[in-house]
């Protein structure tokens, strides 16, 4: 149970990051999810990414809604503030928090029910605002805590453990985000940490709305034959299109990449992400072409993964609104009031 | 009956024809003559075409509520002509546009009907359809000025102020005033109307609506985040906040904003944004109305349990459901007091007029920060959108905002360990930290069961300990909220108890009842939880008439619940048709109760 504290002892040889912290320092409470749950792998990837990026724990804000996925912020970075909000409403809380203080790194963890059913309204509007956050969907096609109902991301023909196969069109978060103008869109698989960690790093550093849709199988309710969100199905139809390497500031690109297959994208802090195009025809900077490609491959039954779209030009919410950089809580109260004696002038039109 | 400086003028027009500025001009001219005045809008949920009315009450005694009669009707709307004629008090006057023939079917011989060819006069003088329509409105102001002796110099002064940047409009408007004025002076020969005479009763007063006042209060309270979804009748609150911020919230160095207004996708998101911003330490608020409260309820319960400040302005309108969006009511008292599932209860403030909208806004933010809980300000359409004469607002430059128990990085550094929900001071209010302050200050904010240390729990005792501590906080709130307004007459076994905008009608009723030797004591509650002094007041009386503007006696129910009172002692007087209550209603109902044998 999560209120049982983890032992804090760690091996002395554990690698330390620039802040002198080990990856253990970025852990949280013990997970209460089912053994083998894909979400725990995502948690591990988040810990790795935040540790590698040397993010100060108290400068990270962990946001979530309700559901299995939304429990996970309790399982990473214990020394960060967390906000486990109400079902489907994480984006609005993050919008308010980010408005008040842009200096924290915001990571939201949600699920397919939380984001695509009850919370689809807030999900799409956070994208429209280009809210500067890393938005992770741990996507397993079912509701776990209420015991296995389909969510809105369930594919047509996907079979539940009990009852009839799903007949309704799924909502695909990736193409939804693409159509709404999200500026960093990725898809990955909880079972592919090598691909996932750099994608999360890029998402954390990207200025604007970053979506990482992660197929994260539910071992209890949706990992059987006939399910399209099982480990086996995902592995079989899994298709890397664009992989990402994260390159820290001042670090040189040393690995060998085939001519034409690597495309560096500079991030605002001086670091880079290097896109490795597995399919040479794919263009992750063209919305229209990305959309067509995704649709074609989806129809062929493939799960396209990698960094599928990036736009580093569009302004994020704060810059669109023109807010001061200072956190609102740090503005002196006197500076927020009209000058002394001004009230008489304000009231003049009402006399 | 009407008399000098005791006149009710009602103007019937069509929505969207620009009559608001003409009506405002008339109301302001009377105010500038030093005579107290009240302006009430009766408008449809419509953009253009439906009937709308504006009622100006000239009240030498400075009463705040709507009158129960109409002395002078300006019937500019053919569609409502017969109803408007029927509404005039016997002996009153009706002005109509005599450019076209009118229906004579419903003529009354107990009133004076005055025809002025307003359209013809304006069509002859002005060009352009829009100008002619606008000037026709200004012309009826001229007619009323002539009939009631309103000083044309005052009107001229107002036009000069309004159109300082558009000089040519001053002359054109004044010409329109004269079209009506001169015609009336020349042709009218019937029984004279009562007059407006100069007084000195409006000095250090203003005429303002409650939504503008609330918005200004938010600016002075240091609110930085306003998140909202547009809804009548609260929209003008955010419009006013935006206008004030554009003037006073631009950082001189960077040219950037020290405020953020976010138009949310719905009320669920609006309140979520408020909680997110408040969690980060900003002062955040949302203006809304009843349907918005329904949508926000889940989150409001979250804020109560996770203990996050928030300020919600509920400008109440007529329910249930969509109800009548442009009519007033006080019918959200219970739904706000207990918004959300589970054991929740919320601090409510009840302003009576725009003056209290201004003063209660900073109070609401202070209480929300101090108590770490949502605080709702329950105004209503009557307060929010009508024009009230109130004392000039004042701001004490030495006022210190109460930001509550927020630990700094230094505070946290000195602590061995920080726990979010410990009752360190015994007042039921724990200490909080803001994200980004210090790694040791971090905690997990959750709406699920938690211990006093902030950890998740399903343990019975640990859960209950926190829920019980919240009740300790509730009693602290009772001591911090504004005390009621209480007034004693020499007879004291019966009393009137009311809330919010019921104040004006009740006070006027007390005067009228006093003239009939019916003396009643008076209590107006300003907040929930109710102060102990409210209980003491009720205890002193044999019968308390609870006067409120809803069908289900919600204030009475809340009093009974909060104080465990004997229900038969509280007698309900209920007004809930959507029109603001007036003194006549209160007087009539109280006299009825007395006739039935109730104490007075």
Give a written overview of the molecule.
Chain A is of the alpha/beta class and 351 residues long. Helix content of chain A is 28%, strand content 19%. In chain A, strand 1 (60-64), helix 2 and strand 2 (81-84) form a beta-alpha-beta unit. In chain A, helix 1 packs across helix 7 and helix 3 runs parallel beside helix 5 (120-128). The longest helix of chain A is centred in the first third of the chain and has 15 residues, at 38-52. Chain B has 600 residues and is α/β, with parallel strands linked by helices. Chain B has 4 domains: 6-202, 3-Layer(aba) Sandwich (Pyruvate-ferredoxin Oxidoreductase, domain 3), CATH 3.40.920; 208-391, 3-Layer(aba) Sandwich (Rossmann fold); 406-480, no CATH class; 485-595, Rossmann fold, CATH 3.40.50. Helix content of chain B is 39%, strand content 20%. Chain B starts with 5 loop residues before the first strand and ends in a 5-residue tail after the last helix. The relative contact order of chain B is 0.09. Strand 2 (81-84) of chain A pairs parallel with strand 17 of chain B.
Write down how many β-strands of chain A occur, each being a DSSP E stretch of 2 or more residues. Answer: 10
Which consecutive residue ranges of chain B, at least 5 long each, have pLDDT under 50?
none
CATH architecture descriptor text of chain A? 3-Layer(aba) Sandwich
Mean pLDDT of chain B: 96
- Strand content of the residues of chain B, in percent? 15-25%
Main pleated sheet of chain B: 7 strands, mixed
Describe the sheet with the most strands of chain A.
10 strands, mixed
Oligomerization state of this entry? heterodimer
> What would the principal axes of the Cα set say about the shape of chain A?
globular
Number of domains of chain B: 4
**Shape assignment of chain B:** globular
Order of helices and strands of chain A: HEHEHEHHEHEHEHEEEHEHHH
Please give the domain count of chain A: 1
Distance between the termini of chain B: 27 Å
Examine the coordinates and then state which fold CATH places here, giving the name of the CATH topology of the largest domain in chain B: Pyruvate-ferredoxin Oxidoreductase, domain 3
Percent of residues in helices of chain B: 25-40%
Radius of gyration of chain A, in angstroms, nearest whole number = 21 Å
* Distance between the amino and carboxyl termini of chain A: 65 Å
Content of β-strand of chain A: 15-25%
Corresponding CATH superfamily of the largest domain in chain B: Pyruvate-ferredoxin oxidoreductase, PFOR, domain III
Largest interface by residue count? Answer: A-B, 58 and 76 residues
């Amino acid at each position: 149970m999560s209120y049982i504290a983890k032992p804090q002892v760690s091996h002395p040889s554990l690698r330390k990051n620039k802040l002198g912290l080990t990856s253990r320092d970025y852990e949280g409470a013990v997970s209460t999810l089912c053994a083998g749950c894909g979400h725990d792998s995502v948690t591990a990837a988040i810990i790795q990414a935040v540790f590698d990026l040397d993010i100060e724990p108290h400068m990270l804000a962990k946001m979530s809604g309700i559901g299995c996925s939304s429990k996970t912020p309790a399982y990473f970075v214990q020394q960060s503030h967390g906000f486990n909000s109400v079902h489907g409403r994480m984006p609005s809380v993050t919008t308010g928090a980010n408005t008040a203080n842009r200096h924290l790194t915001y990571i939201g963890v949600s699920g397919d029910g939380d984001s695509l059913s009850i919370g689809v309204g807030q999900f799409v509007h956070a994208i429209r605002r280009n809210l500067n956050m890393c938005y992770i969907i741990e996507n397993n096609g079912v509701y776990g805590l209420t015991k296995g109902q389909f969510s809105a991301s369930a594919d047509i023909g996907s079979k539940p453990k009990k009852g009839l196969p799903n007949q309704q069109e799924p909502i695909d978060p990736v193409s939804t985000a693409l159509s709404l103008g999200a500026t960093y869109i990725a898809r990955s698989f909880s079972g592919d940490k090598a691909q996932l960690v750099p994608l999360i790093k890029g998402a954390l550093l990207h200025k604007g709305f970053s979506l990482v849709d992660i197929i994260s199988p539910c071992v209890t309710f949706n990992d059987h034959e006939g399910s399209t969100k099982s480990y086996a199905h995902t592995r079989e139809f899994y298709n890397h299109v664009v992989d990402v390497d994260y390159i820290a500031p001042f670090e040189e690109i040393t690995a060998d990449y085939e001519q034409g297959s690597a495309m560096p994208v500079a991030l605002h802090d001086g670091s880079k992400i290097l896109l490795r195009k597995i399919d040479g025809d794919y263009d992750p900077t063209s919305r229209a072409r990305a959309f067509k490609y995704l649709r074609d491959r989806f129809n062929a039954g493939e799960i396209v993964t990698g960094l599928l779209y990036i736009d580093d030009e569009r302004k994020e919410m704060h810059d669109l609104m023109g807010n001061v950089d200072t956190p609102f809580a740090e503005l002196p109260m006197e500076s927020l009031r009209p000058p002394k004696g001004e009230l008489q002038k304000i009231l003049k039109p009402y006399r | 009956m009407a008399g000098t400086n005791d006149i009710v003028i009602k103007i019937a027009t069509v929505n969207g024809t620009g009559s608001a500025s003409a009506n405002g001009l008339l109301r302001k001219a009377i105010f500038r003559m030093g005579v107290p005045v009240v302006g009430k809008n009766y408008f449809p949920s419509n953009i253009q075409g439906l009937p709308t009315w504006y009622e100006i009450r000239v009240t030498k005694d400075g009463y705040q509520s709507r009158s129960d009669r109409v002395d002078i009707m300006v019937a500019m709307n053919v569609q409502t002509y017969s109803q408007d004629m029927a509404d005039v008090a016997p002996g009153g006057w009706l002005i109509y546009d005599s450019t076209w023939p009118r229906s004579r079917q419903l003529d009354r011989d107990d009133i004076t009907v005055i025809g002025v060819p307003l359209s013809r006069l304006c069509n002859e003088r002005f060009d352009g359809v829009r100008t002619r329509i606008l000037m026709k409105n200004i012309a009826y102001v001229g007619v009323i000025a002539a009939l009631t002796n309103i000083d044309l110099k005052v009107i001229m002064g107002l036009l000069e102020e309004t159109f300082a940047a558009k000089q040519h409009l001053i002359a054109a408007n004044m010409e329109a005033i004269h079209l009506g004025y001169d015609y009336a002076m020349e042709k009218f020969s019937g029984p004279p109307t009562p007059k407006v005479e100069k007084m000195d009763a409006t000095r250090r007063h203003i005429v303002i609506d409650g939504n503008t006042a609330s918005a200004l209060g938010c600016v002075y309270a240091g609110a930085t985040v306003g998140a909202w979804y547009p809804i009548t009748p609260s929209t003008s609150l955010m419009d006013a906040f935006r206008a004030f911020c554009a003037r006073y919230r631009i950082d001189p160095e960077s040219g950037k904003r020290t405020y953020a207004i976010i138009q949310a996708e719905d009320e669920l998101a609006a309140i979520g944004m408020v909680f997110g911003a408040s969690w980060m330490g900003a002062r955040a608020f949302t203006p809304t109305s009843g349907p918005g409260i329904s949508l926000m309820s889940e989150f409001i319960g979250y804020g109560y349990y996770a203990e996050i400040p928030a300020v919600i302005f509920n400008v109440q309108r007529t329910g249930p459901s969509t109800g009548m969006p442009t009519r007033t009511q006080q019918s959200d008292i219970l739904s706000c007091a207990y918004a959300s599932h589970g054991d929740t209860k919320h601090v409510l403030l009840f302003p009576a007029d725009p003056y209290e909208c201004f003063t209660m806004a900073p109070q609401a933010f202070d209480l929300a920060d101090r108590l770490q809980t949502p605080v709702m300000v329950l105004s209503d359409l009557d307060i929010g959108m009508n024009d009230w004469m109130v004392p000039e607002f004042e701001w004490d430059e030495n006022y210190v905002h109460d930001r509550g128990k927020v630990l700094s990085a230094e505070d946290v550094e000195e602590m061995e360990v920080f726990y979010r929900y410990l009752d360190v001071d015994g007042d039921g209010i724990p200490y909080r930290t803001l994200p980004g302050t210090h790694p040791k200050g971090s905690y997990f904010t959750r709406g699920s069961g938690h211990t006093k240390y902030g950890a998740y729990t399903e343990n019975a005792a640990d859960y209950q300990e926190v829920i019980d501590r919240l009740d300790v906080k509730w009693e602290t709130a009772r001591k911090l909220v504004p005390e009621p307004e209480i007034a004693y007459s020499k007879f004291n076994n019966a009393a009137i108890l009311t809330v919010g905008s019921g104040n004006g009608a009740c006070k006027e009723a007390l005067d009228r009842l006093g003239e009939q030797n019916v003396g009643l004591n008076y209590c107006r509650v300003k907040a929930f939880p109710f102060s102990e002094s409210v209980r003491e007041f009720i205890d002193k009386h044999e019968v308390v008439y609870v006067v409120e503007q809803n069908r289900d006696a919600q204030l009475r129910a809340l009093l009974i619940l909060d104080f465990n009172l004997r229900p038969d002692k509280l007698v309900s007087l209920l007004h809930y048709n959507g029109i603001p209550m007036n003194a006549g209603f209160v007087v009539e109902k109280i006299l009825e109760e007395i006739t039935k044998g109730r104490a007075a």
